[in-house]
Structure to design on (269 residues):
């Protein structure tokens, strides 16, 4: 009878160890591998790491997926696994870079609990059950990956953005299945941006600190399409016609070019 595949990590697994295991499970055909955890630096039953092709050690044992013997701040167990099994995945590369920086204490988060705090909490809840810690963390890594994949798609769509002038300054328009990105738009120096996503949701957003008041824009839009379900946020800096939280009953039928014309102040009526 063929032996089951085994993944070996270290006790009290940290972010790097768990993320490396998650990558192996999701991208390397090891979703059903048995998990074992040993004291850090050791191997399963004392056998040399990588001596058995059915046993994969990560972040321990000095094998191919253990970075501790190399003084390189760009390496982690996660990064080594990523390079080996999913080198061309852009979203996964972003996750691995973040994990590596955290593992080398080169990055920190704000006051909110970060993913390392979450792992520490799970280890406190299940100090004798590292397998449980791993299983609880895998959905979190799935969610992180989904977020980073969306960011990659947004950046690709942003490369095809339209830049235009408005009475307040630079405007940016973009269209993608995922909608828009305030981080990308405002990071480029835009005062406001307009977007449309793959479900027909449309939005116009302005910087939080700035002179923009979108009330006149709403008035122009209502003249152009009186039935569309446009909503002006009380801040006067956000105009929406449908969101995942509140789908529009009547979506906007204006093209992105027409919306740009409204924001420029063109005479469209």
């Amino acid at each position: 009878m063929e032996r089951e595949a085994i993944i070996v990590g270290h006790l009290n697994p940290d972010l790097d160890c768990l993320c490396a295991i998650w990558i192996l499970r999701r991208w390397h055909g090891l979703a059903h591998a048995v998990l074992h955890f040993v004291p850090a630096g050791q191997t399963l039953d004392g056998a040399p790491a990588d001596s058995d092709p059915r046993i994969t050690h990560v972040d321990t044992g000095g094998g191919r997926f253990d970075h501790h013997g190399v003084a390189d701040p760009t390496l982690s167990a996660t990064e080594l696994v990523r390079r080996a099994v999913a080198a061309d995945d852009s979203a996964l590369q972003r996750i691995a870079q973040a994990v590596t920086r955290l593992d080398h204490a080169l990055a920190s988060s704000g006051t909110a609990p970060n993913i390392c705090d979450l792992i520490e909490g799970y280890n406190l809840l299940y100090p004798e059950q590292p397998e449980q810690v791993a299983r609880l963390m895998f959905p979190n890594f799935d969610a992180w990956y989904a977020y980073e994949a969306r960011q990659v798609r947004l950046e690709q769509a942003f490369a095809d953005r339209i830049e235009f002038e408005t009475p307040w300054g630079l405007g940016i328009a973009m269209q993608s299945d995922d909608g828009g990105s305030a981080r990308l738009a405002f990071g480029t120096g835009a005062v406001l941006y307009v977007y449309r996503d793959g479900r027909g949701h449309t939005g116009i957003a302005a910087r939080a600190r700035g002179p923009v008041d979108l009330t006149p824009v709403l008035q122009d839009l209502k003249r152009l399409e009186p039935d569309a379900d446009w909503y002006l946020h009380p801040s006067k800096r956000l105009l929406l016609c449908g969101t995942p939280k509140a789908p529009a009953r009547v979506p906007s039928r204006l093209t992105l070019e027409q919306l740009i014309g409204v924001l420029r102040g063109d005479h469209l009526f």
About this structure: Residues 6-155 form one domain.
